[in-house]
Amino acid sequence: MSSIPGNCTTVLLAEHDAAERQSLRDFLLGLDYSVLETETGAEALEKIREMEPDIIIADLDLVGIGGIELLKIAKEESWHIPFILISGSGTMDDVIRGLRLGAWDYLSKPISPIELLQHSLDRVREKVDVLRNLYRQQEHLEELVHRRTLDLLTQNRNYQEEIERRQRMEKQARKAEDEWRRTVDALPEMIAIIDKDRNIIRINKALLSFLGKTEQEVIGSACLMCSDEHACLHRETLKDSKPRTTELYLGNEKRHLELTILPYASSDGEALGSVHILRDITEHKRREKQKELRQSQALHSQKLESVGQLASGIAHEINTPTQFVSSNIAFFEEAFGDIATFIADLQKASSHGAVSSEKIQSGLEESDWQYLQEEIPSALQQSREGLNRVTSIVRAMKEFSHPGSKDSQEVDINNLIEVTVTVARNEWKYVADMELDLHPAIPKIPCLADEMGQVILNLLVNAAQAIEEKLGVTPEREKGLIRIETFSDLPWLVIRISDTGNGIPPHLKDKIFDPFFTTKSVGKGTGQGLAIAYSVVTDKHGGNIRVTSTPEKGTTFTIELPLTA
């Protein structure tokens, strides 16, 4: 049932007097009202319940249910319908009682002038309009209150959700911080976070244990690594956001530490400080020294082995020129004897005055001077070449076997290659021709000459053995080719050693630099040569060594060494 009165177009007229009822009905119809007529209170109540009229006009003296009783029931069931009481016998008490029960107006019968009823109806309509506006405003206010209430409930719910979200975030943050602390405390590395003012704001247990202090003593104190005596790596990292690493040595404790400084920034990239990570690398340093010692011993052992293997070849290389020098000396002795005899005969003939051209010519023929005149210069030249050959071999062997410095020195790589080729000549000359293409303009480079010479020797011997394995011993003495070239390719000095041997099977190329791996037969290789070469080139010189190979066609090793330290 609506809470706002209707348009007041239908009037329920409850009047027991027929004449009065007709008079009122006609008047109402003349005012364009729709009229429902009843004679008794019971009928009126039934009409009210069924038809719900817009206005009720009821006589106070209705039969059965009187006007006052009908008013009470109507107000209980349809309180919003305007109710006008009319009476021809009512007292002032009845009027007051009716108005208190909710009657909108009270008219006395006979209504005269009849326009009083119209006036009463107009006031009812005006009041209905006012109530309708009030109800509308009330509904609007109620709607506003309802929407505002919903908004407030939504805001409260949002606030509650935000509070709960923040509580979850804070809980997660506390959990994450706790997990971070437990994780960092479990690490063996010593870690601290330093703010922009060089103060320690976080530190883990490992570093606290190393310092022998409590967290309360350290947090907020100045960074231990900061000093006005040297460049502050923390400040440099703040400037360019680049990580830095340095090594520290604690002399009293004989401990080596590695310090890494990393930039520390907020989520939006603002620099907040740096993270200091200290690692104890004492054991690592000790193992490195042991490794270097083992490598040095292996290199020394291989060098002794190489010298031993080359000794017989070098002896043979020296023996050949020595033999023909010795033969030429015997020839000189015999020739000198013949010439001495001729000169003695000339001296004797001269003392008797019997020197003649025939005598001299006969003496020259007897001493075979024409033969000696042709052969002695040739023998002298051969002897000089032989001695030069011996000298060059001895010089090369002296340079090769000289114990090189443990520190890098400026080295002429071309000369180092030439010396090594000379020393190893007996290893390759029977199976291969040697082709050198050494660029004359390459500069000297910082290098460990002793160890790099061993690398070149290993590769050279491997090349000769690969060619011998491919060709075997043939009656026609077929030879392969070993080619060594050098050139600059910034920032590298490149050494390329190629052979026409039997190559390396593809499935073995990734293993050839592994220690103790060898493709040679038992007794012909230890598997250390290429492993040592790889270590010397990459670890000790910071270079690269690569291999390319085609089965049955040959192999090329390429070494790249830095032109500068």
Provide the structure class. alpha/beta
Helix content: 40-55%
What CATH architecture of the largest domain would you give? Answer: 2-Layer Sandwich
- Total helix count? 15
Tell me the strand order in the biggest sheet: 2-1-3-4-5
* Weakly predicted, low-confidence segments: 1-5
CATH topology of the largest domain: Heat Shock Protein 90
The total domain count is 4
Mean pLDDT: 79
Oligomerization category of the chains in this entry: single chain
Question: CATH top level of the largest domain?
Answer: Alpha Beta
Short synopsis of the structure:
The chain has 565 residues and is α/β, with parallel strands linked by helices. Helix content is 53%, strand content 19%. The longest helix is centred in the N-terminal third of the chain and has 72 residues.
What can you tell me about this protein's structure?
The chain is of the alpha/beta class and 565 residues long. The protein folds into 4 domains: 128 residues, Response regulator (Rossmann fold), CATH 3.40.50; 94 residues, 2-Layer Sandwich (Beta-Lactamase), CATH 3.30.450; 111 residues, no CATH class; 160 residues, 2-Layer Sandwich (Heat Shock Protein 90). Helix content is 53%, strand content 19%. The protein has 15 helices and 17 strands. The strands form 4 sheets. Strands 2-1-3-4-5 form a 5-stranded parallel β-sheet, sandwiched between helices. A 5-stranded antiparallel β-sheet has the order 7-6-10-9-8. A 5-stranded mixed β-sheet has the order 12-14-15-17-16, covered by helices on one side. Helix 2 packs parallel to helix 3, helix 3 packs parallel to helix 4 and helix 9 packs antiparallel against helix 11. It is rod-shaped, with a radius of gyration of 62 Å. The N terminus is likely disordered.
